[in-house]
Amino acid sequence: MMANAAFVVSAAARRYWWPFVGLVVAAGLLQLALFGYVTALGLAGTGDSRYYLHAAQTLRATGFLLNPDGTPYRHWPPLYPMLLRAMGSLAGVRVLHGACLLGSLLLWSWLGRQLLPPRRALVMPVLLALGTPWLLVSKFVWAESVFLLLFGAYAVALWQWLRTGRWSWWAAATAVGLLLPLQRTLGLFLLAGVGVLLLSAWQRLSSLRRGQLLLHLVVSGTGGVLWQWYALLVAGPSRYHPSRGWSQLLSSGADYGFVLSRWLLPLPTTGRVLLPDVLWAAVLVGLFALLWPRKQTEQPVNEPNSAVSITVAVTSAVPMNGTEPDNRLLLQTLWGASLALVVLVAALTVFAQSAAGIHDAERYASVLFAPVVVLVLAAWPASRSRWLGRALLAIWLLGAAVRVGHVALDLRRVTPLTTASFPGPAHDR
Length: 429
Fold this sequence. Notes:
Elements: H1 2-38, H2 47-62, H3 79-87, H4 90-115, H5 118-121, H6 124-129, H7 132-139, H8 144-164, H9 167-183, H10 186-200, H11 207-234, H12 246-264, H13 277-291, H14 310-316, H15 327-348, H16 358-365, H17 369-379, H18 386-412
Helix pairs in contact: 1-4, 1-18, 2-3, 4-7, 4-8, 7-18, 8-9, 9-10, 9-11, 10-11, 10-15, 12-13, 12-15, 12-16, 15-17
Protein name: Glycosyltransferase RgtA/B/C/D-like domain-containing protein
Organism: Hymenobacter frigidus
Keywords: Membrane, Transmembrane, Transmembrane helix
């Protein structure tokens, strides 16, 4: 029986492997073409960018991260200014953003192939290449582009650790997890969601896995917690203010409900005001309810090395608790991380000025674009009517293509930063 199952799965892997590779290559070229088009005149900046660039310059000149007014840099984590310093110029930052986009596409496409049925996995790289959230954040000198890559690497390492139980993958997941909140504070929210979902599967983990999990969560969160302690208590007074009330929480929930819906449906920007806040918030709740991973009727390939037999995966894996790991656990973990980020960021808008409004919401939620695509494809109904499923998928792809094309035109017209805003190291001499 095992031999028959191995033959069927490996045959499916061979059948879809080369189409998958071809689509990944085409999607990567499309993504780089879009990125090259919107950044041809240079990267753009906002108020956040000014702080990032100034901190990078002061780090290069004095060895300290400082704000434009000379106070210690503290509003954002320190990793991105350090990377900006290493890049040396805006041209280098552009290369960094492009590499992060391509790396994110490759990581999530690979992971989608492990978690999704093979035919659905074929669509993953194309949807990612047409992702407006990724293109949007890559245009600006923001920390999100690197954050996307880090979360993709973290998800891959976490899946490999859950599958094999190897300390090397545990170390990789922990190292990347440590960097997540040092790149963006939202990394703490993602880690919180991951922790809750994996701890809820406590009974399914062996004693060794339980200890690894606890140590992983503690080490991963340490850097982010220490930076927040420094930012809030050492570097200056708190930038948070008293609560703005439940109406702000409802409004933020509605913003995220609209943004996530817009990733799936061709909705115009004005669509946000067509429904009251309570209905868009209800849409958000409904989306997460629909995306909760359930048992799949069509199984993924689960191939660790291209088109290999499932027998290799089973015999080389160290099981979670005597049985082969269930891919649903990682899908549920991605679901939990996504929910935690949306809920906690929406709650944060009650106490802070940031992350409010659909534009900030799309920026903050950009790291969830790939997980949401994976969850949607995993939850895609196995309809008896193939033409209906293909029609819905075509509408999704067409809507994504139209929107990313429209946004690309708008982003190209955004005034770029001048070279003087971030001169190279030679100007410091």
